[in-house]
Here is the input.
Amino acid sequence: MKKIKKLLSVFMSVLIVCCFCTSLTGQAISFTPNFEINSAACVLINTDTGDVLYEKNADNQYMPGALVQIMEAALILENCTDLKMQLTCDTELLKRYQETEHADDLRYADIKNGDVLTVEELLYALMLTSSCEAAVMLANQFGNGSVAGFVDMMNAKAKEIGCTQTNFTNVTGIAEPSQKTTARDMTKITQYALSVSKFLTYASAVSYAPETQNADRHKMDEWIWTHSNAMMQENSVYYLEGTKGIKTANLADQGRSIICQCTKDGNTFLVVLLAAPFNDSDGTLKFFHMTDASNLLKWAYTHFNYQTLLSDSTELGQITVQNGDGVDYVLVRPEKSFMSLWYDGADINSVVQEVKLQDNVSAPVAQGEKLGTVTLKFSGQELAVIDLVATSSVELSQKKYYLALAKHFPHTEWMTRAIFLSVILCAVYLVLCIYAHVLYTQKTKAPEPVHLKPKASAVKREAEKSARKKTNKK
Here is the structure.
């Protein structure tokens, strides 16, 4: 019995929490820039709020190229306890990739067979130059002597963080049809990587010179790795202040890709671009991935700012309250204000408010009690669902309550059950009465006279006696 009471108590507690917890769920709304995006797929997101400002073919699958090394670097940082640990280059591990038709897609950091570098130095080579030597050395070390084992770790992590359309098959980024991802999944992977300590340090360095000395190298001061994202280089035509280059990728069969982050005026944006063409319609070599990234980031800083789409002081409806003491209604308002990054080219008055209020509300009603929801929509896209709460309290009128109870009782389920039970009891009583009457009638009925027939032997004796009498007379 105690267990039942305890379970009931827990259930009621959960029920109360569920009733009074408020919901504020939002979905990103995508606006369209007024310029052409040449990349095949794109996601532009504000990492401070999670708002997706623009997306294009975000769920279409493409080969990621060297973008896979974002996941590799994040996993190594999570699993490495000594970044100063030294690894020796074994070029034999690279042969699998160098002997394919796509070998030209590989990128090198001039790491020779036998060179010794620290894990930290190899991470710089990986993120700045897409070094295939560093990629294989690190994967082999942290995959327990198996590059394939490390790839399995990458796939497991991708699944863990919610990537549903990503499959990794190698760490160099070389073209393989079965290695694929989407702009949306790469956004999740990059956000996961940015949450890993020190990842951004390696991913955003403009350049780096390894410090470990190798005997066969005589000019170590000339061994410098520069980030492949020219948007960070002040002397580049693609330079954009505030940019932190994370990763670029090139695949001959698909095009150029880039992922970069930029912070300005307190806002941080992340842009993911996949499969931009190498050439324009005239065959001229272009870097469309950097042009797209720069244009999108400038568009975000210029045209987006925070707007209050719904204030918590806005009255959005009136609900009739039954049995209220002196008041028969209550007003409702949003539990919280809703703010969002808003495009200045979109009319804020075009945000549609779909209000749903509770029916049959009875007193007492507490101030702040949830009585409905409002859904905000723009161009058919859902922005948020916000709880509506009572602006004031309504006390219960005992007189109205009991009058309503008495009036309503004939129509309640209890009344129906009572009538049904009464009919059953009457039927049982009637059957019992009939049965008792039958029994009583049988007991009081007069018995019929009994006529005894003489036994055959007695008759025979009487006949013999009569015969003897007659004989004696004679």
